[in-house]
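User: These chains co-purify. Model them together.
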Amino acid sequence: MLALIYFIILAVVAVGAALCVFLSKHPLYGGLSLVLTMLSLAGIYGLLGSPFIGVVQIMVYAGAIMMLLVFVISVLNAAKDNKTPMFDGVSLFVIIGVLALAGLVGFALVLSPMGFDASTLRGSVEMTSSNLFNTAQDGPGYFVLFEVLGLLLLSSMGAAVLMAKKRLGSEIVEDNSDNKEEK
Amino acid sequence: MELQPIYIQILALVLFTIGLITALARRNVFFVLMGVELALNAVNLSFVGFAKTLPADLSVAGQIVPLFSIAVAAAEACVGLALVILIFRNRESVDSDNYSNMKG
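Assistant: Joint model of the two components:
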């Protein structure tokens, strides 16, 4: 009973903040609302018995990704077209289509029988680490994925640095402005 | 009244819908990125919710895969924001309708 009350509070906060993301005018407010959504989702993870994922969610999502997003929004805040309308004509059809799809999926979801299993493992640090770094021959093999993930993060960081530094030289500046005038 | 797994899936569905609508309907490119992040979050919640309906050994995968998903989301945000900075320098605009220079 108490778990249900906590879940309802956290779910209402999460959905309300997600609606704030959808409806807010300035992206900075949207980013701060998204942080609130992620914090309440981390609370739901803890409620469900996976506290490690909740902590990772706070550290990586609310800490790192949203900090990066808010920082870039602040850097690019001087855009000329901050006053463009939020939606255009196509948006109406998109919203109706996605809502219809969600209704279908929800209908199928409600019909399927589900129940909590009493013997599920709690997602503690010990369970996560012993499975993630299980290098046994017949183990689950998640450690290979972990190595691949390191390569992915390294390559994406290199790609981001290469793309963002492009205009430090002066000759490329003129090249880009030429392109803009052609357009 | 107890907490049922279906409530978690419904919450994940609602969050995914809001994220998808934000990504598809908003014009500002930052809202597109934030909508994608919201949808990824909803999928993680769905993973954990389904993992709790499985018995002991099977419930491990559903609690480890979200960690990978979070890391991939971090890489996606990194590259996506670098792309936004790059296009912003060319176009001086954050409206995604102005990014249609590929004439596709």
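Residues 51-75 of chain A form the longest helix (25 residues).
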